[in-house]
Amino acid sequence: MPSEHSIPWSRRCRVALSGDELRLGAPVPTPDVEPSNPLTIPGSEITAGIKAAAALRRLLRKPPPGAVLRLRVSRRDEIRQHIKGEPEVLVVNAKKWDAEGKPDNRIFARGASDWFKAEVKGAHDAGFEWFSAVEYVRIRHGKAYRVDDPSSPGARKVVVVGRLRYETITFIDWAPDPGSGSPRFYVAYNWRHEPYADTLLYEESGYEDHLYPLDGVKYVGYPRAQRVAWRFRSARYAIEQRRRDRQERDRRYEG
Q1: What are the Cα distances from residue 53, in Å, to 46, 48, 50?
Q2: How far is Cα 195 from Cα 172, in angstroms, rounded to an integer?
Q3: β partners of residue 139
Q4: How many other β-carbons are positioned within 10 Å of the β-carbon of residue 75?
Q5: What residues have CB less than 8 Å from 96, skipping those under 6 apart?
Q6: Which residues contact 171 (CB under 8 A, 6 or more apart)?
Q7: How confident is the model over 35-93, as pLDDT tens digits?
Q8: Considering the entire predicted model, what is its pTM?
């Protein structure tokens, strides 16, 4: 009796089972070439798509609220316990931890430096706050624009404060930094090369050291044209500084 594998595709037979005996039915005419479905997707591509979708889901999925709250409370209590007597901390980019102490010679220095000192304001429930600057601003349509002349119309003195979210602090090294003697906060930076932090504005209330928050006001800083001009000046300075560094290196080592 011919086996099923001995029959070519063009004369493939129907297979019928009768008890323990394998019987071959009459051949059915079929095309010589097995038809292909143009909509068929290979299994490897399906597997790759599933893996990519799972990775994207893990990236976009938010952690449970309970886990976030427990992390925030633990970070807040830890900072409150150790921050007493510390006037400032060192905020370091967690991905560029080895750049700590090195000068920032980026040509287009957008955002914050990979490390900077922050004067401690306090560890609050919403996040860790530090004093950034004292400036004069003019508020228009809910946006605060920085002004250089305190006597300009509408200028008011404000305290610029940064608020760092506790869940973005990846690690805290309470051992004194060899250069500054301050503890180091290793934090995550966003695509703007800035810490995941909020910028707040406060005004002096006239009552001791109490500061009054300016709710609903967004800090912009200088207008866009001035910011672009400053970036070009910063880029020119960075290029000149790199040139001087190369000259100093050649003078020192080449003799």
Answers
A1: 11, 9, 5
A2: 15
A3: 144
A4: 20
A5: 114, 115
A6: 94, 186
A7: 555 556 666 666 777 777 777 776 677 777 888 888 889 999 999 888 877 788 999 88
A8: 0.64
Distance CA 158, CA 245 (A): 38
Of 250, 93, 75, the closest CA to residue 166 belongs to: 75
* CA gyration radius, the chain: 33
DSSP string, 144-210: EEEES-TTSTT-EEEEEEEEE-GGGEEEEE-SPPTTT---EEEE-B-TTSSBSEEEEEEEE-SSTT-
**16 strand-pairing partners:** 23
> What are the strands, taking DSSP E only, across 19-142?
21-27, 88-93, 115-123, 128-140
How far is the C-alpha of 166 from the C-alpha of 77, rounded, in Å?
Answer: 11
Q: What angle do CA 193, 196, 199 make, to 5 degrees?
A: 100
In order along its 255 residues, the chain shows pLDDT tens digits of 554 455 444 444 444 444 444 444 445 455 555 555 555 666 666 677 777 777 777 667 777 788 888 888 999 999 988 887 778 899 988 887 777 667 766 766 667 788 888 899 989 888 999 998 899 999 988 899 989 888 888 889 999 999 998 988 999 999 888 888 889 999 988 877 778 788 899 988 777 778 888 888 888 888 888 778 877 888 888 888 888 888 888 888 876
